[in-house]
Write a structure and sequence with these properties.
Elements lengths: L2 H10 L3 H14 L4 E7 L5 E6 L6 H4 L29 H7 L2 E7 L10 E9 L2 E10 L2 E7 L6 H6 L3 H18 L4 E6 L2 E5 L6 H9 L7 E8 L3 E8 L11 E5 L2 E2 L3 H11 L11 E6 L5 E2 L10 E2 L2 H18 L3
Parallel strand pairs: 1-7, 11-13
Antiparallel strand pairs: 1-2, 2-6, 3-4, 3-6, 4-5, 7-8, 9-10, 10-13, 11-12, 14-15
Helix pairs in contact: 1-4, 2-6, 6-7, 8-9
The chain binds adenosine-5'-diphosphate and magnesium ion (MG).
Protein name: DNA mismatch repair protein MutL
Keywords: DNA damage, DNA repair
GO molecular function: ATP binding; ATP hydrolysis activity; ATP-dependent DNA damage sensor activity; mismatched DNA binding
Length: about 325
């Protein structure tokens, strides 16, 4: 692919964790119950995500790495009625341009779903199809990305030590496991289990599994609703669980993992006076708003978000958090 194309792909895919995020979201869109992630060499050597979702029909597999052919939005209004995390149809195409990518997938049928059946695999390298074949697997999809950024020297140069990249991947997978506690997540890094959840469906259980902390009695429910504009729910940890970093704060808006300066500011204003200096709470927060009141289509890599009723939401959040934090004993 042309240099410009590789640079564009490198902007969507900033680091190995960006690949993991795209593959995870695709697995979630495919309604997986179990998602297994494997990482080697900080993700530059290998990232593999396997799911037991609905799979990709053989007739479509060759197309999924062609930009926009799979885009789920036909016109702009569709964005408001989106029920999937992906919609641009460019993540796999971008990744295929700057790595060696193999997709092995079998679409679910009714009777033989659980059985191993021949499934198609296709490998792309630098955006070109280089190989294909058949291999048995139950329904679902396995996507393997190796040699990430091999043809994007600039990105390769930016990549930090494997430890740093692994850290980003662990934080990301933990957050998705918090967002989807009903799904079993496994993350293996260089043959070691880094994340393992049971998919119990219970958020407090997922947090305990993720952080290996004894959390019983230390977690408190957050709930605030305004039927018309928002529903806020989640869990916040006691003061004793406060941490030196924001990495234990997770925010989902309408099922999407979000970073929001506005929300983070509102949160900090609420907890800052109640926690020791420099500390941040263990906090998992889910905000649901009518889809037409948010704008998430801002940048493919950074999921920033704009709310129509931002002021209202910030006030509600601050109040909800304060109410819980003031009530719990130190
Ligand atoms: P988008 O998610 O924006 O549609 P992607 O490039 O991420 O674009 O994926 C392209 C298409 O490939 C998806 O729309 C979906 O049809 C298919 N696909 C990708 N990964 C999976 C998966 N794990 N299971 C089922 N289908 C998948
Ligand atoms: Mg996608």
């Amino acid at each position: 692919p042309a240099v410009a194309e590789r640079i564009a792909a490198g902007e969507v895919i900033e680091r190995p964790a960006s690949v993991v995020k795209e593959l995870l979201e695709n697995a979630l869109d495919a309604v997986a119950q179990e998602i297994r992630i494997e990482v080697r060499g900080g993700g530059l050597r290998l990232i593999r995500v396997s799911d037991d979702g609905h799979g990709i029909p053989e007739t479509e597999l060759a197309q999924v790495c062609i930009r926009h052919t799979t885009s789920k939005i036909q016109n702009f209004e569709d964005l408001e009625h989106l029920h999937t995390l992906g919609f641009r149809g460019e993540a796999l195409a971008s990744i295929a341009t700057i790595s060696e990518l193999t997709i092995l997938s079998r679409a679910s049928e009714t009777e033989m779903d659980e059985l191993m059946q021949p499934a198609l695999w296709i490998t792309w390298r630098g955006g070109e199809q280089i190989q294909r074949g058949h291999r048995a697997r139950p329904h679902g999809t396995t996507i393997t990305v190796s040699d990430l950024f091999y043809n994007v020297p600039v990105r390769l140069g930016y990549s930090k030590a494997a430890r740093t990249e692994n850290g980003h991947i662990i934080q990301l997978v933990r957050r998705y496991a918090i967002g989807y506690p009903g799904i079993r997540f496994t993350l293996r890094i260089d043959e070691h289990n880094a994340v393992q959840t049971s998919g119990s469906g219970d958020l407090a259980t997922a947090l305990t599994e993720l952080y290996h902390l004894s959390l019983s009695g230390l977690l408190h429910d957050i709930l605030a609703t305004d039927e018309q504009h928002y529903r806020i729910h989640g869990i916040i940890g006691n003061r004793v669980l406060a941490q030196n970093s924001r990495q234990y704060i997770t925010l989902f808006v309408n099922g999407r993992l979000i970073q929001s300066r506005a929300i983070q500011d509102a949160l900090e204003r609420a907890y800052r006076p109640l926690l020791p200096k420099g500390k941040h709470p263990l906090l998992s927060l889910f905000i649901d708003v009518p889809p037409e009141e948010i704008d998430v289509n801002i940048h493919p890599a950074k999921t920033e978000i704009h709310f129509l009723h931002e002021g209202l939401l910030k006030e509600a959040l601050t109040a909800a958090l304060k109410a819980v934090l003031e009530r719990v004993p130190a």
